Amino acid sequence: MCKLEQSEGKKVGGREWIMGLKSLGLSGEKSKNSMSSRSKMKLWMIRATTTILLWTCVVQLMTLEEMWGPRALKGWPSCFMASDSALDVKLSSIPVQVANPPKRVYKNNGYLMVSCNGGLNQMRAAICDMVAIARYLNVTLVVPELDKTSFWADPSEFQDIFDLNHFITSLRGEVRILKQLPPRLKRRVERGVVYSMPPISWSDISYYHKQILPLIQKYKIVHLNKTDARLANNGLPSEIQKLRCRVNFSALRFTPQIEELGRRVIRILRQNGPFLVLHLRYEMDMLAFSGCTQGCNEEEVEELTRMRYAYPWWKEKVINSDLKRKDGFCPLTPEETAITLKALDIDSNIQIYIAAGEIYGGARRMESMAAAFPNLVRKETLLGPSDLGFFQNHSSQMAALDYLVSLESDIFVPTYDGNMAKVVEGHRTWDSRRQFYWTESL
């Protein structure tokens, strides 16, 4: 009995031992499965974290590319970069958003008010001069007043054409610019207690230090009532020239409304292929001012002469048109322009956008141009009346549209060495943009 019990006990014990091994086996398998799951989870999290980090790096690199444009990143595709498609227009006058510079701290010597004269590009160049003068005299500049009494009679204020806040903040590291004078000084101006004068034309910066600065320190406010060509172009320190360029090509940004309409015009033109912008400076005011009457009949010559005498600030009254033409001071006529474009081997089927006001003589003077280059367009033919309704009777705003289209054109051809030709040429050179053909009077 005892042996039997012992034998059975061994069997039972063996069975328990086998069951124990089995249970241990099951427990081990569960442990292995748990460890495998944790390993997979870790691997997944490592992959996810690495992906996020890599994507963050790519986004940061793309941001750096937009701000500084290193060559190594120029060819990278990205949803954050502007498309290279011809229909995606990025105007050069819209710079990349960057942080505003810190305000420049200096002892303020007084306040400078300026009244610009002339057309859009003449005033634009003058604003650049006035910012440079204010900067180097350590004075506060009041936002320039635009010309409203010239031939164009445009009532636009500065903020109607240019992005005022961008103008002020982008230059805060150079000069303090106010939208208006402090109340006490503003009341003085309203009472007429202000020193007003036209500065001498083509003066260097020493003239403003020696003649204008003492007046500002004495009267606290000086009003410069003429601004065209008042600062010399050459022989100035490079810092002044660089500041002029910064103002012209970065700080003077057009309003969002003008920029958007400019994009629309460019997009319409791009849909039909490359285009040439022709600044055909053959408008009534230009011919009256210059006295250039080639191709005009007797009645038109008399009309232009009467107009010249009607504006007392146009100093030159008696003008020999033929002599002025020989000296090279007349714009090309529409007929001469057509011959010149043919000589330059311009494709007769190219779109030619006329960046100008109403051509003097109308369709009669444009006949030869239209026959040689049938694809002539203007903003008035590309846009509807509702699009341009806001800009009617605002010649400077219309000129701003032409300026934007000129910057983005494949070829730009001016027919007169005026302000528009100079500023567009400078802007395109600043941006290293496309072709620029220059034509001189024949």
From TrEMBL:
Compartments, record wording: Membrane
Keywords: Carbohydrate metabolism, Fucose metabolism, Glycoprotein, Glycosyltransferase, Membrane, Signal-anchor, Transferase, Transmembrane, Transmembrane helix
Pathway assignment: Glycan metabolism
Biological process (GO), any one: fucose metabolic process
Gene Ontology CC terms, in alphabetical order: cytoplasm; membrane
Entry's Gene Ontology molecular function annotations: glycosyltransferase activity
Primary location: membrane
Pfam families: O-FucT
Transmembrane segments: 44-64
Keyword Coiled coil: no
Membrane topology: Single-pass type II membrane protein
Source species, domain of life: Eukaryota
Family label: Belongs to the glycosyltransferase GT106 family.
Classification via PANTHER family: O-FUCOSYLTRANSFERASE FAMILY PROTEIN, OS02G0726500 PROTEIN-RELATED
Protein name: O-fucosyltransferase family protein
Organism, scientific name: Aquilegia coerulea
